[in-house]
Amino acid sequence: MVLLYIVCGVIGLIVLNTLLGGPVPFLRWSFLRMLFSMKHLMSEWQVGDGREEAAASYVIAHAPAGNIDSAVAAIDQYAYRQKFLINVGDEKGAILDAAIDRVKPRRMLELGAYVGYSALRAARRLPVGGHVFSVEFNPANAAIARRLINHAGAADRVTVVVGSIGDGGKTVKALQEEYGFKPGCLDFVFIDHAKEAYLSDLQRILEAGWLHEGSVVVADNVGFPGAPDYKAYMEAEEGKRWQTKTHKTHVEYQKLIPDLVLESRLTSV
Ligand SMILES: C[S@@+](CC[C@H](N)C(=O)[O-])C[C@H]1O[C@@H](n2cnc3c(N)ncnc32)[C@H](O)[C@@H]1O
């Protein structure tokens, strides 16, 4: 009986939220649909209802070609008004923007492109000659991201590489041999892929020697869904190899679920 009241209450809230134009993003069918597809999302990295492809079509229809700002705004609009997307989003995106502005990276590595939202946010803030390499292991997501990056006119600043830093050396080798990654080449890393791979992939990047003193690593979702081993590592390394600023923020596209973004500066290699 209690369960019935809860279910009816949630449905009522969703209907009310829909009638009000969806001001609470996670009180939407598309958010619930995503919650029920969590297993699929965590294995395939698409929700399973075609929303990532639909988001690309929406952006191409609504944002003029060659305009990164419009493309970023159209992706946010889709996520707020149409269907929830797992981008870093506008609130945490501003934290990423500010970190990029401080570092002015000439070469940036992103782990996890999804539909290319954060790569586009980064592209518009890079200094002249700056470049983002975004490693994405789902070829369908990589194709969507490339489509949006091309549409926004950012293909000269963003390269999406299909692969994974933890694939036994294949992607690391490709980054070195095809894209010129060498010791000390990376000014900035944005980690936003499988939460359980944050720490191991950072360690692989350190082993490759790509970071230099002063390189900055920003990690999304450290609070929710959470990357506890990565957080514990940065806490243990505080004042030793790394200096970390913890940004208290919220999960994308809503204000009720808290999240943490870690911005860590490498103080010695
Ligand atoms: C949260 S989304 C990235 C969102 C994106 N950074 C943004 O804010 O626009 C995570 C992405 O990481 C990808 N991914 C998951 N595990 C990965 C791995 N081990 N290596 C590379 N990409 C991975 C998924 O396919 C998915 O597209």
Number of discrete domains: 2
What oligomeric state is this? single chain
Strand order of the largest sheet: 3-2-1-4-5-7-6
Could you tell me the strand content as a percent range? Answer: 15-25%
Instruction: Report mean pLDDT, rounded to a whole number.
Output: 94
CATH class of the largest domain: Alpha Beta
Computed Rg:
19 Å
Fold blueprint:
Blueprint: H1 2-19, H2 29-36, H3 38-44, H4 51-62, H5 68-82, H6 89-103, E1 107-111, H7 117-123, E2 131-136, H8 139-152, E3 158-162, H9 170-179, E4 186-191, H10 198-208, E5 211-219, H11 222-226, H12 228-237, E6 242-250, E7 258-266
Parallel strand pairs: 1-2, 1-4, 2-3, 4-5
Antiparallel strand pairs: 5-7, 6-7
Residues 45, 86-88, 111-114, 117-118, 135-138, 141, 164, 166, 192-194, 197 line the site of S-adenosylmethionine (SAM).
Structure description:
It is a single chain. It is built from twelve helices and seven strands. The chain has helices spanning 2-19, 29-36, 38-44, 51-62, 68-82, 89-103, 117-123, 139-152, 170-179, 198-208, 222-226, 228-237, and strands at residues 107-111, 131-136, 158-162, 186-191, 211-219, 242-250, 258-266. Helix 4 (51-62) runs parallel beside helix 8, helix 5 (68-82) crosses helix 8 and helix 6 packs parallel to helix 7. The longest helix is centred in the first third of the chain and has 18 residues, at 2-19. The model has no long low-confidence stretch (mean pLDDT 94). The protein binds S-adenosylmethionine. S-adenosylmethionine is lined by residues 45, 86-88, 111-114, 117-118, 135-138, 141, 164, 166, 192-194, 197. S-adenosylmethionine binds at residues 45, 86-88, 111-114, 117-118, 135-138, 141, 164, 166, 192-194, 197.
